[in-house]
Recover the amino acids of this structure.
């Protein structure tokens, strides 16, 4: 389907601008809308990194479709940490003391409607890992 929108501006004197037209084509491929709702720019090494996504996958027909998630980090998480982290859920929890101090981790969320690989969308956030405060007892 094609939809054409036309705009004409009028001023208070009644003069009109020439019409501007824009045509939009409806895509048969739905894509989910995603966002990382609590991106953290810094994190202490002694605190877990917790990220939560929000998604919507309602097509033009009003039907909600299931979304598949995949979280990745650059640099990659150490292999021992990766086995304890669920990277296929809408949220990501990286345990305490898993990330290196002074490193900026780019964390990417890829989401797609299940069974529709052409529907992939990507959201990225970055986290800088800071040293934990020294506690003297």
């Amino acid at each position: 389907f094609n939809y054409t929108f036309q705009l004409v501006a009028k001023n208070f004197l009644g003069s009109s601008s020439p019409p501007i037209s824009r045509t939009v084509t409806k895509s048969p491929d739905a894509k989910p809308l995603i966002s990382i709702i609590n991106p953290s720019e810094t994190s202490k090494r002694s605190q877990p990194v917790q990220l939560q996504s929000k998604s919507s996958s309602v097509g033009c027909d009003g039907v909600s479709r299931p979304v598949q998630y995949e979280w990745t980090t650059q640099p990659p998480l150490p292999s021992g940490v990766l086995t304890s982290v669920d990277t296929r859920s809408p949220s990501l929890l990286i345990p305490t003391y898993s990330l290196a101090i002074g490193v900026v981790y780019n964390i990417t969320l890829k989401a797609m409607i299940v069974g529709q690989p052409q529907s992939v969308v990507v959201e990225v956030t970055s986290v800088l890992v800071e040293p934990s405060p020294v506690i003297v007892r």
About this structure: Strands lie at 2-7, 20-25, 33-36, 42-44, 49-56, 67-74, 91-94, 104-113, 121-130. The longest strand covers residues 104-113. Residues 1 and 28 are 9 Å apart (CA to CA).
